[in-house]
Amino acid sequence: MEKEYEAREKLIACAKKEFQEKGFAKASLRSISASAGMTTGAVYFFCKDKNGLFGAVVDEPLQRIMHTIQQHFSDDMATDIAHFQHHTGDHDDFAEAMISMLYADRDALLILLEKSAGSSYEGIIDRFIEMIEQHNLALAEKYAAAFPGKRVNRYMLHWLSHVEINAYVHLVTHEADPQKALKKIKPVMDMLVEGWLAHILEDDN
Which of 22, 35, 149, 205 could form a disulfide with 14 if both were Cys (CB 3.0 to 4.6 A apart)? Predict the structure, then answer.
């Protein structure tokens, strides 16, 4: 079992390098297997196929990020949003958790974001945006219920959802230092929350 584990980890490490250099579509299973000192049969044994091998590289960091976001969603929905008042730094804990997860394996995350074309992970950014937009809609409707004559501004909700995801994507793809990334994202989070509270509702007419 230990030898199998070591062989699988070596295969994944070689795959990570290949995907990083060539992307999913152009990566060669033969090249990956040769680098790991194995036959292509090892890929099918450990990961079923090329897409499974790609998943072995990117899925663990992706799941950690998803867990952090889902925890944030739960905290949001438990908040008394009708009487919520934002103060600078209120979302620092979430920013810190996200930066920790994003940079825990930044190389794998960059592969996911930039090299996934042709895999089942293609379009992952759009999936993140759809997920956060659904959450924001539920939160905004809860907020709107406390203000008679108001309704959710769907355009602003859609736009702010894009901005929130793209802020983190731009950060992790352009800033290699997690401490600098954290310093940069905190005021962005404050701005996004303030913008959300100021513009997420419109007159119901």
Answer: 35
